[in-house]
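Help needed: design a sequence for this.
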């Protein structure tokens, strides 16, 4: 996982099982930085209250977070990662 700032957006770029995902980096529950969280086969786990977010659709898989994180389209071209923001 790496964190990237693009203008005012705080993004999280994640490689999970060889697939690249781009999402918002800030937890929707308590504004923790997800880049300091934990990555598992389920998604990214918030370091603060341990909610897990699915990287494909942004949905929270468990409380306390209820609001999904935003996901962004990703394109890989010639080993470059492009994110549609």
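Sure. Designed sequence:
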């Amino acid at each position: 996982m790496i964190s990237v700032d693009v203008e005012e957006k705080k993004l999280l770029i994640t490689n999970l099982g060889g697939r690249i995902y781009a999402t918002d980096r800030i937890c929707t529950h308590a504004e923790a930085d997800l880049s300091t969280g934990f990555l598992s086969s389920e998604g990214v786990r918030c370091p603060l209250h341990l909610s897990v977010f699915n990287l494909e659709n942004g949905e929270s898989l468990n409380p306390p977070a209820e609001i999904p994180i935003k996901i962004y389209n990703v394109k890989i071209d010639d080993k470059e990662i492009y994110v549609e923001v």
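The beta strands are 2-6, 9-16, 19-24, 38-40, 43-45, 52-53, 71-72, 74-77, 80-83.
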